[in-house]
């Protein structure tokens, strides 16, 4: 996988198919439904030993980290394959904070001792991270930054509050956007340092935790100065949006498979419910939504790698499509399972909560459609408009 | 497999055709004949029959070069011929001589093709059709009525599905033929549709005679042959243009851009949803093209047809809602026989009315959802009242 280009869009290489099989097997062995339920009701919410194996043995946490930064020099496609499979099982662990946001942010930042020190352990899975950068609809908004940075010589301290940061409760490292004397910069904070207060929150989705962060003169190290912070954070949010979309695809595929099997085996009125057109047609619509979601997500994955499309537009197309598809497929999964689908014991509720959570993270489908409208409709030409009959 | 060698072979052949037969200078038929002879009409067909025996996915390599040089989109000139007749003939015509005799003039568009499938009493339930073919020596004598036949008035040849055994269950008693549209027993009448135009025809078969040599497949095996045709129809309808923002959605976006006075936030989100749906389907077509290997289209083609048809309707409904009172006018309901599908080039209101047929023609959306459910997802079929019964005992009406 060394620094290869994924030449053909939508076509996975043999290595990528093997990677998919390996991650799928790991997730099946370490995060079946029982394990997910046990972990989501315990602390820190995931199996830290398994997470380290994901990073150190399978090596799938920083697949697109360049070799010169200590990574394996794969592509975003490689990373997407792994995230899709982890999403399929709701793999408990800081995929969002560490893999989707923190590692891409570090990769985009200029070389320096802070980056080098942080990146290795995150890729190895020996430490985890969360990113607190105040996005608005999946885009960075410097005006929304709620943390202040103060400088004393070479040392920095941060003060302020960031609410609802995914994966922050258990994170070792926090990447925090803060406003300093020269503008907004990105800082690294050791989560166990003095002046850092973390308040875990009870989340809708117990497999994806959040915490509110309060900094009171917390010691921080500069990761990306005002000259590059916006670019670095923007890059992380776009990559994060695309990886989130791929996760939504993985989970949606799992739900469609699950529901199809149920519709084949569940008998009412003396026949499988899947033979009724009302049920069959809803499943067909779920398939179409899933196919569209997969195409939009994969397009974005490849486009970010080969520059064939505007990254912001590709990411918004992926997020707008995948958020809606996953939420609808998860809701239809409950509906088509009938009563059992509404119970605590059945897995549908876990996926539904993840679907609602994912849809709200990094911009809702509506917010991404609004961005698409600005990028596409506002620049369209009316010259080729069809003639309108006037009677 | 798509080897790089095959790809450059296709590209070389296409460049050679363009060089020797500049499509902007030579007549269309001459250019298309050169494409056929170079094996670029259907690259996955055997050599000598308009193909090179390479992967179907490489067609886009040829089309890209030919069309960039100003070549026509042959599918648009002979849609039933290119999309449905060609793959069926290639697979089922009984001799290589017949295949060549039919395929080359089909490819050049000298011979337009149509299909005689639907009947007044057999729409979605195509296998229930009643047109009969009775053997008479080396010939078959055909009687019945077909409907929704586009291009029948211009067609030289027709694909016909007829009943040869009324005592067999409905799928078992069908046979597939190629009919000469110039036979005296074939009568074509225009069929007027809600746009006012007559884009389709009714075709009456009164003792029309078909040589047995023009039978495709075995007697009683017509349904299987028809599946070749229908799967190709669905995938050809579903395979839309590959540039972002092209196709029907362009009508809505350009109309929107031309009328800023009518913009509202609600309409804007509705249009963005439609654009997004069109884009997701475009990417899905690209993805399935990228994954295409040797072999024919699968039921997945039904996704494109289903989405495209519903999207067309939604796009024109949006346009009409955008225009409000300005939209509820028309240009002219005078009936005209149409060359090809002029409704799509007519005023917006005509396109709007035409789109109602999209979710019916080429497989209703209901049937397509059954296909996705049963053939792609593997769900069980519905209960059937006609299962196993001889065709003649099945209630009709």
Structure description:
The complex is a heterodimer of chains A (391) and B (397). Chain A is of the alpha+beta class and 391 residues long. Chain A has three domains: 14-128, Butyryl-Coa Dehydrogenase, subunit A, domain 1, CATH 1.10.540; 131-228, Beta Barrel (Butyryl-CoA Dehydrogenase, subunit A, domain 2); 231-377, Butyryl-CoA Dehydrogenase, subunit A, domain 3 (Up-down Bundle). Chain A is built from eleven helices and eleven strands. In chain A, the strands form three sheets. In chain A, strands 1, 4, 5, 6, 7, 8 and 9 form a seven-stranded mixed beta sheet that branches. In chain A, helix 5 (95-108) packs antiparallel against helix 6, helix 5 (95-108) packs antiparallel against helix 7 (229-265) and helix 7 packs antiparallel against helix 10. By secondary structure, chain B is α+β, with helices and mostly antiparallel strands. Chain B folds into three domains: 4-108, Butyryl-Coa Dehydrogenase, subunit A, domain 1 (Orthogonal Bundle), CATH 1.10.540; 113-226, Butyryl-CoA Dehydrogenase, subunit A, domain 2; 231-376, Butyryl-CoA Dehydrogenase, subunit A, domain 3, CATH 1.20.140.10. Chain B has helices at residues 4-20, 28-37, 59-68, 74-77, 79-92, 96-108, 222-238, 248-258, 265-291, 301-323, 348-354, 365-376, and strands at 113-116, 132-136, 139-146, 157-163, 174-180, 186-191, 200-211, 215-216. In chain B, a hairpin with a 2-residue loop joins strand 2 and strand 3. In chain B, helix 8 runs parallel beside helix 10 (301-323). The longest helix of chain B has 27 residues, at 265-291. Chain B is globular. The relative contact order of chain B is 0.10. The chains are: A alpha+beta (391), B alpha+beta (397). At the A-B interface, helix 7, strand 11, helix 8, helix 9 and helix 11 of A face helix 8, helix 9, helix 10, helix 11 and helix 12 of B.
């Amino acid at each position: 996988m060394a620094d290869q280009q994924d030449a053909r869009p939508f076509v996975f290489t043999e290595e990528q198919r093997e990677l998919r099989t390996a991650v799928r097997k790991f997730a099946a062995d370490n995060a079946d439904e029982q394990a997910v339920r046990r972990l989501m009701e315990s602390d820190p919410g995931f199996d830290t030993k398994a997470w380290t194996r994901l990073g150190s043995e399978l090596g799938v946490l920083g697949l697109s980290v360049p070799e010169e930064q200590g990574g394996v020099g794969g592509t975003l496609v490689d990373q997407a394959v792994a995230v899709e499979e982890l999403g399929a099982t709701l793999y408990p662990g800081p995929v969002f904070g560490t893999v989707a946001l923190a590692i891409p942010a570090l990769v985009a930042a200029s070389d320096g001792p802070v980056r080098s020190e942080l990146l290795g352990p995150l890729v190895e899975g020996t430490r985890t991270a969360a990113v607190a950068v105040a996005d608005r609809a999946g885009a960075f908004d410097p005006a929304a930054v709620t943390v202040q940075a103060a400088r004393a010589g070479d040392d920095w301290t941060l003060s302020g509050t960031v609410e609802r940061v995914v994966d922050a409760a258990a994170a070792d490292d926090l990447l925090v956007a803060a406003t300093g004397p020269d503008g907004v910069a990105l800082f690294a904070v050791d989560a166990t340092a003095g002046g850092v207060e973390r308040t875990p929150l009870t989340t809708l989705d117990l497999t994806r935790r959040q915490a509110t962060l309060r900094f009171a003169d917390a010691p921080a190290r500069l990761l990306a100065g005002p000259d590059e912070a916006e670019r670095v954070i923007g890059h992380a949010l776009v990559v994060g949006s695309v990886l989130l979309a791929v996760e939504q695809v993985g989970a949606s595929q799992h739900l469609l498979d699950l529901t199809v099997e149920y519709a084949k085996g569940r008998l009412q009125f003396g026949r499988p419910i899947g033979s009724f057109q009302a049920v069959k047609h809803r499943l067909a619509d779920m398939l179409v939504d899933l196919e569209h979601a997969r195409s939009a997500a994969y397009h974005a994955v490849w486009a970010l790698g080969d520059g064939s499309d505007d990254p912001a537009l590709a990411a918004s197309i992926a997020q707008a499509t995948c958020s809606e598809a996953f939420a609808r497929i998860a809701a239809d999964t409950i509906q088509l399972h009938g009563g059992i689908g509404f119970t605590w014991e059945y897995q549908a509720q876990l996926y539904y909560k993840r679907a609602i959570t994912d849809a709200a993270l990094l911009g809702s489908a509506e917010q991404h459609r609004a961005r698409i409208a600005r990028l596409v409709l506002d620049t369209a030409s009316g010259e080729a408009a069809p003639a309108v009959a006037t009677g | 497999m798509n080897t790089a060698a095959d790809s450059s072979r296709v590209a070389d052949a296409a460049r050679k055709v363009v060089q020797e037969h500049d499509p902007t200078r030579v007549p269309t038929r001459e250019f298309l004949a050169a494409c056929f002879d170079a094996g670029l009409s259907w690259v996955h067909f055997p050599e000598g029959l308009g193909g090179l025996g390479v992967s179907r996915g490489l067609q886009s390599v040829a089309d890209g070069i030919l069309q960039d040089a100003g070549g026509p989109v042959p599918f648009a000139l002979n849609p039933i011929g290119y999309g449905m007749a060609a793959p069926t003939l290639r697979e089922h015509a009984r001799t290589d001589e017949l295949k060549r005799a039919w395929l080359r003039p089909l490819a050049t568009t000298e011979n337009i093709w149509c299909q005689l499938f639907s009947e007044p009493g057999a729409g979605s339930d195509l296998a229930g059709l009643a047109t009969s073919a009775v053997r008479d020596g080396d010939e078959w004598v055909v009687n019945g009525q077909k409907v929704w036949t586009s291009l029948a008035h211009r067609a030289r040849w027709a694909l016909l599905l007829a009943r040869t055994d009324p005592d067999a269950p409905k799928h078992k008693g069908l046979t597939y033929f190629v009919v000469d549209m110039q036979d005296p027993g074939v009568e074509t009448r225009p069929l007027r549709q809600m746009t006012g135009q007559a884009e389709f025809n009714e075709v009456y078969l009164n003792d029309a005679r078909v040589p047995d040599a023009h039978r495709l497949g075995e007697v009683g095996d017509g349904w299987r042959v028809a599946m070749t045709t229908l799967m190709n129809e669905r995938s050809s309808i579903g395979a839309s243009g590959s540039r972002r923002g092209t196709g029907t959605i362009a009508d809505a976006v350009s109309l929107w851009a031309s009328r800023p006075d009518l913009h509202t936030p609600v309409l804007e989100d509705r249009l963005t949803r439609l654009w997004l749906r069109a884009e997701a389907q475009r990417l899905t077509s690209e993805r399935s093209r990228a994954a295409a290997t040797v072999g024919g289209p699968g039921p997945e083609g039904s996704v494109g047809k289903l989405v495209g048809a519903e999207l067309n309707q939604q796009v024109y409904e949006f346009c009409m809602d955008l225009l409000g009172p300005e939209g509820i006018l028309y240009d002219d309901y005078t009936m005209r026989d149409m060359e090809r599908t002029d409704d799509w080039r007519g005023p917006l209101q005509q396109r709007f009315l035409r789109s109602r047929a999209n979710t019916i023609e080429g497989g209703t959306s209901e049937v397509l959802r059954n296909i996705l459910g049963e053939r792609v997802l593997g769900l069980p079929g519905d209960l059937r009242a006609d299962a196993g019964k001889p065709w003649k005992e099945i209630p009709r009406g």
